[in-house]
């Protein structure tokens, strides 16, 4: 496999960081923190003597914060309004605006900015500077642009108290709020760093957050990834092999067979920072959260914004992207099926392909391998088929699925989603075989080395073993909570429970990560179908695959016995003890079982409770909910509904993840609704469901995909690792050679 070296200037220019002692002092002694910052910046000056450039709407506090930052760093402070514009024009900014009007003002302001020159200073921009592209491009070349992101309601309140009723760009019929909303696109375009500023946050605190954000920006060396099976001594000794986000998104599985996790954990958001996102759109929330999880040395903020807009802007049928709907009592549904392939997998797999294409070397070809229990396959194929043509020439996808272990519509969807760079292969086995085979292929250095040398092609993974798959899922769990706060269902800071149909443990792990980041999730309820190995494990601490056989059910996405992402969670609660994780998973591989110690089980049970649902109860729940509400649950959501009914204590709201649209499982839904005659044609089944005027409506995007399925052919192979490897080599030869 190719080893990627990203020669980003931030990584070349910064090799050391503040010690952990300094970080503790920052929290306990602010005076010491100031001295530490001065000392640190004296030995680690602003990159190339660049400026710290503060940007944000009028009322964001740029001038005040700039003065405090300058004082802390003992460096010059420049206010563009006072020190540049008014000096250049020999009149106040308000007089100039009144004199020339908004359009000409922006041009004059931009010209002044183009003549501006400074280094090693703190610069406070005007609220309208970012609207002049040439001027911003000029100042950005010698500066780190920090966006003071203040909630709209706070800005409006501040401007009102300052008696500001007109700003640049305002005209008759255009409100102040409209102008502020319009300007957001420019702030998003130009910033390198975002600092979230809540309503009551003091300027001194904002200044410290600015300094902390600049430190993070300069020290990308801190944001490394490690394997869940690496020992502490290995991490400290082998710094030359550090992995960053741009490495792990392409490599997928760690060389030792473990899974990549961030060495320093996930970022924490304060209660005030979450509060500032309550009024934000889904796309805005996604950008804020992902910016904190992905260092700009890997994907700059402006590029990340472009990727998020591409992924969620037009590809989802609901403008809210992931709406929360009241079901009954204290139960709410998080609808995760409005993407192009009608499952929660779209949230990651409309996003990850574009991240992947940005991070890989331009000179390399990549074959992305994926194993699916149903929904992942079509989502991966659809996501990678939406890349630019030049990217599709160097990136291809091969999807392995259990030939007889997915629903008829899922199978038709995977076949129909095949494109010039995306293929599906049915395997005469179950999902666990497909997933295990891919892991074995990735850890076979002889085979991967052969593909690299012989064909110039590296392998990558798109399953949830890939770290990048998990981050977009963290976003929708956080967003669901914020929506309940916004709707007045729960006060900000009060807890909720979540219930998630769980197979490979990725979705519920993302909820646990959201909890770590500060979302007040109390309990995560793990819902299984008759393949209830996770239920037994969470209740007893014993993970036992001996004598277990996979039971095909009507909820195939959770027909899984080996839950890959459980390894990441065990690593987390085991205090990052990679040796213990290695021991557990070696025992699972060799003996078919392992058992947690009492202390570890106690930690697990503080986060998780679990239950399972029979096929009979699943179908009964679909019928019952439809009879009482007119709403149709898919089979996986019904599993979660049954388990939530049994395990919730009704002391707080519970969010049930609705992970797929019922249209994907039409035969089971029609049986649940007690419709006797079921046509075998998937399109006819969806039309029949539509005749019932259900909530939500039939997924028409899925229906259109089935109507124009294109190539009905797909390859089918035996459950043999060497056969899968042969298929991979054949595809590489046909696509890349």
Automatic annotation (TrEMBL):
Keywords of the record, alphabetical order, are: Amino-acid biosynthesis, Pyridoxal phosphate
The organism's place on the tree of life at top rank = Eukaryota
GO terms classed as biological process: amino acid biosynthetic process
InterPro entries the record matches: P-loop_NTPase, Ser/Thr_deHydtase_PyrdxlP-BS, Shikimate/glucono_kinase, Shikimate_kinase/TSH1, Thr_synth_N, Thr_synth_N_sf, Thr_synthase-like, TrpB-like_PALP_sf
> Start and end of every Threonine synthase N-terminal domain?
239-312
Q: Name one GO molecular function term.
A: pyridoxal phosphate binding
Modified positions (N6-(pyridoxal phosphate)lysine) in chain numbering = 345
Q: Which intervals of the chain form a coiled coil? A: none
The pathway noted for it is: Amino-acid biosynthesis
A Pfam match is Thr_synth_N
An annotated GO cellular component of this protein is:
cytoplasm
Q: Which cofactor does it need?
A: pyridoxal 5'-phosphate
Question: Which family would the database say this protein is a member of?
Answer: Belongs to the threonine synthase family.
Protein's recorded name? THNS1 protein
Per the UniProt record, the lineage of the source organism begins with:
Eukaryota, Metazoa, Chordata, Craniata, Vertebrata
Name the encoding gene, please: Thnsl1
